[in-house]
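Exercise 3.2. Students should predict the tertiary structure of the chain below and write it as structure tokens, then compare their answer with the key that follows.

Predict this chain's 3D structure.
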Amino acid sequence: MQDPHAPTADDHPKEECGVAGVYSPGQDAARVAFFSLFALQHRGQESAGIAVGDGSRVRMHKDMGLVSQVFNEEILRGLPGHVAVGHTRYSTTGASVLRNAQPIFCQSLVGDIAVAHNGNLINTAELRAEMEAKGVRFDGSSDSEIIARLIVENIDQGPEKAVALAMERLKGAYSCVVCTPRVLVGFRDPNGVRPLVAGTMGEDGYLIASETCAFAPVAATPLRELEPGEIVVVDEQGMRFARGLPTVRPSMCLFEFIYFARPDSRIYGRLLYGVRERMGENLAREHPVDADVVVPVPDSGIPAALGYSRVSGIPYREGMMKSRYIHRTFIQPDQRLRELGVRMKLTPMAEHLEGKRVVLVDDSIVRATTTKQIVRLLFESGATEVHVRITAPPIMFPCFYGIDMCSKGELAAARMTIPQICEHLGATSLGYLSIHGAVAAVGQPANRFCLACFNGDYPIPVPPGLEKHAFEKPPDVGQMAAVAKDQLSLDL
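Answer key:
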């Protein structure tokens, strides 16, 4: 695994997690889960796991690494069963270590459960302190384990009731799948911050996954997204939907449309590739420029660059090639190679850049370190001008709902004006798509999105202590839990 403290050539917001739940009578649920997770690999590359119920017990295998590195034929054969949940992780709350890898497995007097979670709770410390005060012991430091142990508390009332009771205690973003030896459950927070889709697979199979792109590889058909606060249950009677909590304020993360979700996925019924093209079109209208060529930062900037080219009339041309295998190894670059930054991932094509006024299109700027290196690379390759155009509005506030995009003090747009960022990048000009332009590209009202990282309007109120940590440095979950536990003992 990559050292999380090492310099990185990827300055995008980091993916959250991908989850998949499978109900496949008479079939190999673990194998279906594997291929669904493989399609969700872009959502997290730190660890992967699959838990399988066979009617009497739940078995599980998980490890650090990519899906293809964690599983092989022998391991999958050792996971028989008709119901499964899988997870591919990028850590947000809880360290990137094996004990925090998912699914989270819990035993109870009435049977085993396994839980896979995408998102981030904002009352983690409070819940953990309360549960530890009651004698609950935790194996790791992730907020996902809290969800699992809350469900176990009431599992004797049945999976659906146990999930509904747990949802009443949870605050924050969560799209989860749960398996018992016989039942598959999916549920989504009442704001619907993270995506979750349910569908069918063959005559009597079902699939629940973070994105629709997980359905095609296993010949499944997505039916619909879960509504915020909704529960879906799959058992021998089929699939049924139930209300867990009332919808509070629909707040789908806009970054799912800008960057996170795969371009062939659909959210709100919109194909993400088309949404990103329209973002590029709106960007060209808002920030036109005289130039010779439109160049994307591969791969995430390609659809927007095509849209920018179409509206501006400036020819589209690939100016860099990306190594798609740089993250598929456990061999770490030494310090000298790390300092090469983007050069390890992007190779410029000087013939497409030399003597050209370039419009460089990318999805986002976080710290501005990567974009600065790319701008320098283009100038070194012969570009005479580099006009940076970004499809995400300026990121000015930290995320508390499952995106790892650093503290406010590290965000370029929080500490510099746009002209200052442009000067820092060494770019000829800089233009960000407006919030209105980004939302309009999706074709939904602005009040159906979480825009907190752009405008500071958090749809789920953030505890003051957690907000203070985010403005200064990433929170230490263990330390915060200890503080909350001390406070709880005083209250008692």
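Discussion points: The first strand starts at residue 17 and ends at 23. Residues 110 and 156 are 6 Å apart (CA to CA).
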